[in-house]
Design brief:
Helix content of chain A: 55-70%
Radius of gyration of chain C: 28 Å
Shape of chain C: elongated
Number of helices of chain C: 11
Number of strands of chain C: 10
Number of strands of chain A: 0
Distance between the termini of chain C: 81 Å
Chains: A mainly alpha, B alpha+beta, C alpha+beta
Order of helices and strands of chain A: HHHHHHHHHHHHHHHH
Oligomer: heterotrimer
Distance between the termini of chain A: 44 Å
Largest sheet of chain C: 5 strands, mixed
Shape of chain A: globular
Order of helices and strands of chain C: HHHEEEHEEEEEEEHHHHHHH
Strand order of the largest sheet of chain C: 3-2-1-5-8
Largest interface: A-C, 98 and 102 residues
């Protein structure tokens, strides 16, 4: 039924060369630009909801003692914050950028599978509605951390687990469909002459990310299915009483979980590799080595998962193997950072807002990389593991890494999407406020972590009090600063100075050869690739 | 242009990876057997020992733990015994059902250090089977084991732990 | 004026106190050889990272300052150099090998299966630790000693807030102590930063680790693995004593155990007055039950049942005693038969049956608890 409606809708749109009007346009759309926008708006909404939960967490941790929420609700907040930020904010944002930009970058008229594209977006809001609704169940929502270790998530959880599992399945299906679409588009839809080694790096990194998604999201689906059957159908995958093993859960989860981490950072590398050359007015240094580095990071991500579980008690040989493999990842990652620096070297650099975010990304992501390298050292990890040092580490790579790259990308392409320049003064305020507050927020976490504060606790010993107050203030400031971003995006969508096709003078790529705003249909006839 | 061949391949990868998640369950057990990961010893009856190392002694201690809600009291008669690798040894355990209902007990063995797990061979063990215990009943069980002569030389002591679970309800759930 | 200056002094005093207390913003060196090794390793890697960071970012910021468009910089044309790229792949590789060598050494030193002088079995449960001195017949639970009033800001927090327990684990110094970790319910993780010991306690399995403490002292840590609602409220406290002091303590602990057994035996013939049971019961309730069932007895809807108006409490006494002695399998409600004395159990049951408007008027005597325990033991 819906496919018939879809068909007629697209036919209509083709006739008019204009989108349908009203709500139906968005519900039935198969246009990659519409779907890209939907993903991005959805992701921003989730970013604000997940951020609001972080504010609850930071408010409770502002002072020692229990003030605002009880520990059980606190655990629900940390769990939901993690799930929403990973699956609701970061991943859909990258999928949104992929939808918007990949067809434009490779000279394709649309994504390869437009109807599946519509589905992969529209099931996502339902997944998160289910997940958020579980908070209102008796006993509250999931409270076992986003890593849902068994048996805390099986025998010792309430019935919201069933909703959680269902929601994760839907998110997984959405991601897999999105990833399949990206692969098919890149492999089959490149304009004539767009050879592999001419692909923009954002496309390359997304291709590799899509393969990671296809490989590991089904594993996550398997893990949640086992949790469900253990809880409700008397299986014992993770229950020692029936011959299972709770540690096996962690192996399966992190076999998904570690590649997942790279799913959230590889597209970021692609964005930064696009922006830095633009504002350095110089070609990206070491294009080929960037592609190889990305591929090797992706391959290595499959053999390092157990570094998340050094304290579970592994044979020393296994600990050594996972330590070495993890350390090895810093080589290709280092190559990337060196390449960016070499790109800027002897360029003609200017500091537009996307470039500011990119520079912040390079410095702060590298900082997160260093703490990652420290965490790889097994004996030291026994001290760092499950402390705020880890929290500091992954927020540096995910907030000042992934999120900053998404903002850089948003500012970079926003004029292309809307045809208007954003308010540069406001955007610069957004950048500087974010930059300062994000470091006030996450930098002291290294100290409290080293001093011995475990993660995921609602209350702490007195020696951590001062730093936690500072962290919370940084948190509130960072949270409020993001409202500026919403204002900038909204104002830019509404109007502003008109921009030409090539918004940034140093930019290269097919996306800058179409008008701004990008017409509803682009590259209906393939472009010439020089 | 048709996208179907590529689409098919990608969907097959997805299904294969979903299956792989479940394949990790038996793979994990194989991996544990090889590396002694998690101190998970075999639940199979071992072969009799034929060789004894005379000039070495290893201390083997025993501990039991009734999991929360399992109304059993399981104890070994001796806390610890010194054995020569390869020499068979018998240790008596007593198990009592402290509740006033009939229960089924399952003991799960675990060995520390983990790397010693595959060198501890059990010829008779109450952990091989589910043990029904009537209300208030006390039974004696024999553990017959030996330590492999190949046990790494740095291991001077090892502990065999039994975690005892009440699986009565699980059996009911499964039979229904 | 006087008020102002005195509050100024107060601020200064509090500030300097805090600065001293916060002087530890780095990993602790700890009190074992291993923890010292780990600290050295941590500092080495940290410094290497700092040096690399400073060099890379110095170059980057130099470019950002000198190769600006506004300064009239003209972009160069180079965009690859195999030589340079091989170089900056190889150099990090060499640095990594430099890091891996000390890391491997420390890790291998941590792996030690030689015979220990003392073995402690550590069992985690929601949300307390249980310690058993293997082969010594001494065992006890160790629970958070911080009061609910301190946690809910009704009274001032003491300096060991959340890092204090009723009964610490007592260990000898200069002896190899082996730990066997397991869990009663979910995964916990036993962590003492001063020993650089952190090991997961997995239900159904045992994990092994060890330490050898160099100095007498009290060492504090916490559970490191999210284990449910009160994960933040199950600290680890270790008191390290000299070998002689430890021996004396162990002997005393054994005696205390016999004494406690004699006391409970004596209790069987006594009738404890209701007031005494209620007072003790409230104490036991706040320490053991209030974390889940709440001081108000209202529980947490959907997770922890309310005590007020509970059918178990208002119902048959036998059923009520049963659930305390056996727990409720598959939930967080565990058996308290081992953790609490018969007098404490009698008191807390009496308290629950008479508090929050549960006016059953029942008074339960320790002898009834013993009778229930005996009946279970001898049933049929």
């Amino acid at each position: 039924m819906s496919s018939i409606a879809e068909q007629s809708n697209t036919n209509e749109a083709h006739h008019a060369h204009q989108p349908a009007r009203g709500f139906k346009r968005w519900l039935f759309t198969t246009n990659h630009k519409d779907i890209g926008s939907l993903y991005l708006i959805f992701s921003l909404t989730m970013f604000l909801i997940g951020g609001a939960m972080a504010m609850v967490i930071r408010a409770e941790l502002f002072q020692p003692g229990l003030q605002l929420v009880d520990p059980h609700f606190f655990n629900q907040m940390t769990t939901m914050h993690g799930l929403i930020m990973v699956f609701g904010a970061v991943m859909p944002a990258f999928t949104g950028l992929a939808n918007w930009m990949i067809p434009l970058m490779i000279g394709a008229p649309d994504m390869a599978l437009p109807r599946m594209n519509n589905w992969s977006f529209w099931i996502l809001p339902f997944a998160f509605l289910i997940l958020l609704a579980s908070l209102f169940m008796p006993g509250g929502g999931p409270a076992f951390g986003w890593t849902f270790y068994a048996p805390l998530s099986t025998a010792f959880s309430n019935d919201s687990t069933a909703l959680f599992v269902f929601a994760v399945h839907i998110m997984g299906i959405s991601s897999i469909m999105g990833a399949i679409n990206v692969v098919v588009t890149i492999v089959n839809m490149r304009a004539p002459g767009m050879t592999w080694m001419k692909l923009p790096l954002f496309v390359w990194t997304w291709l590799i990310t899509a393969f990671l998604l296809i490989a590991v999201m089904p594993v996550l689906a398997g893990a949640v299915t086992m949790v469900l059957t253990d809880k409700y159908f008397a299986t014992s995958f993770f229950d020692a009483a029936g011959g299972g093993d709770p540690v096996m859960f962690q192996h399966i989860f992190w076999f998904f979980g570690h590649p997942e981490v790279y799913i959230m950072i590889l597209p970021a590398f692609g964005i930064i590799s696009t922006i830095v050359p633009t504002f350095s007015r110089k070609k990206l240094f070491g294009y080929a080595s960037m592609v190889y580095a990305t591929s090797s990071i992706a391959l290595l991500s499959f053999i390092v998962w157990a570094h998340h579980m050094f304290t579970t008690g592994m044979p020393v040989a296994a600990e050594l193997f996972f330590m070495y493999a993890t350390m090895l990842i810093s080589v290709p990652t280092g190559v990337k950072v060196f390449n960016w620096v070499a790109t800027m070297w002897r360029g003609s650099i200017s500091f537009e807002v996307p470039m500011l975010f990119s520079i912040a990304f390079i410095v702060l992501f590298t900082l997160g990389g260093f703490s990652g390298l420290m965490l790889a050292i097994t004996p030291a990890d026994f001290q760092y593991h499950d402390t705020y040092f880890v929290v500091a580490h992954f927020h540096y790579v995910l907030v000042t890494g992934a999120v900053f790259s998404i903002m850089a990308g948003a500012y970079y392409w926003l004029p292309k999407w809307t045809g208007n320049m954003f308010n540069i003064t406001l955007a610069k305020w957004h950048f500087w406020l974010s930059l300062v507050s994000v470091n006030v927020l996450f930098f002291p976490m290294h100290f409290v972590g080293l001093a011995g504060m475990p993660r995921r606790i609602p209350d702490y010993a007195l020696q951590f009090a001062d730093f936690n107050a500072i962290i919370s203030i940084g948190g509130f400031a960072f949270g409020l600063s993001q409202l500026l971003f919403v204002v900038v995006v909204y104002k830019c969508a509404k109007g502003g100075d008109k921009v030409p096709a090539k918004v940034w003078d140093g930019a290269h790529g097919l996306e800058w050869e179409v008008d701004s705003p990008a017409p509803y249909h682009t590259f209906s006839t393939p472009p010439d690739i020089k | 242009m048709t996208h179907l061949p590529l689409l098919k391949k990608l969907v097959i990868i997805c299904i294969a990876m979903f299956a792989f998640a479940f394949a990790m369950v038996p793979l994990y057990d194989v991996f544990c057997d090889i590396t002694g990961l998690n101190g998970k010893p075999s639940l199979e009856q071992a072969q009799q020992s034929t060789l004894v190392t005379e000039n070495r002694e290893v201390s083997v201690s025993f501990t039991t733990h009734a999991q929360s809600g399992a109304p059993f009291e399981v104890k070994s008669k001796e806390y610890s015994v010194d054995v020569k690798p390869g020499a068979m040894r018998e240790v008596m355990f007593s198990a009592k059902n402290n509740s006033n209902e009939d229960k089924v007990m399952q003991a799960i063995p675990s060995v520390a250090p983990g790397k010693a797990a595959k060198y501890l061979h059990k010829i008779a063990c109450f952990c091989f089977d589910q043990q029904p215990l009537k209300a208030g009943e006390e039974l004696e069980f024999t553990l017959l084991f030996y330590v492999d002569t190949e046990l790494p030389s740095d291991v001077e002591e090892l502990t065999l732990s039994y975690t005892v679970f009440d699986i009565s309800e699980r059996l009911v759930a499964r039979n229904n | 004026m006087g008020k102002l200056s005195s509050s100024l002094w107060l601020i200064l005093f509090v500030f300097s106190q805090n600065v001293l207390a916060n002087s530890q913003y780095n990993m602790r060196k700890g009190v074992t050889d291993i923890s010292n090794n780990v600290y050295q390793l941590h500092m080495t890697i940290f410094l290497i990272c700092c040096v690399i960071g400073v060099i890379v970012f110095a170059i980057m910021f130099w470019a950002l300052i000198h190769h600006r468009k506004s300064k009239g910089a003209v972009p160069a044309q180079f965009h690859e150099s195999t030589k340079v790229e091989i170089l900056w792949t190889a150099i990090p590789f060499v640095i990594l090998i430099g890091m891996a060598i000390p890391a491997t050494k420390t890790l291998i030193a941590m792996e030690d299966a030689s015979k220990a002088d003392l073995t402690i079995k550590v069992t985690g449960s929601q949300w307390k630790w249980h310690y058993e001195y293997m082969g010594e017949d001494v065992e006890f639970y160790s629970m958070l000693a911080t009061t609910q009033d301190e946690i809910t800001n009704l009274s001032e927090k003491n300096s060991n807030y959340l890092l204090e327990v009723d009964k610490p684990l007592v260990l000898p110094i200069n002896q190899k102590v082996r730990f066997l970790m397991t869990s009663d319910d979910v995964i916990h993780s036993w962590w003492v930063p001063d020993f650089a010991v952190k090991k997961d306690a997995n239900p159904g399995f045992i994990n092994e680790t060890w330490t050898n403490i160099n100095e007498v002292g009290t060492y504090r840590g916490q559970c490191a693995e999210l284990c449910g609602k009160d994960h933040g409220f199950m600290p680890v406290v270790v008191e390290a004593k000299t070998e002689e002091d430890f021996k004396a303590w162990l002997a005393e602990a054994k005696q205390a155990k016999q004494k406690a057994a004699a006391e409970s035996a004596a209790l069987l013939d006594q009738v404890v007055p209701k007031e005494e049971l209620m007072a003790l019961g409230e104490q036991v309730y706040m320490a053991n039950c209030a974390a889940c069932h709440q001081p108000t007895g209202l529980g947490l809807s959907g997770v922890f049942p309310a005590m007020k108006g509970s059918p178990v409490i208002l119902g048959d006494v036998k059923g009520h005693i049963d659930i305390l002695l056996k727990g409720s399998p598959g939930t967080s409600m565990q058996s308290f038969a081992k953790q609490l004395s018969i007098k404490q159990i009698a008191a807390v049951i009496t308290y629950k049956r008479n508090a929050w408007g549960n006016d059953t008027g029942d008074v339960i005597q320790p002898s009834e608890i013993q009778a229930a325990l005996d009946a279970d033991g001898e049933a049929k």
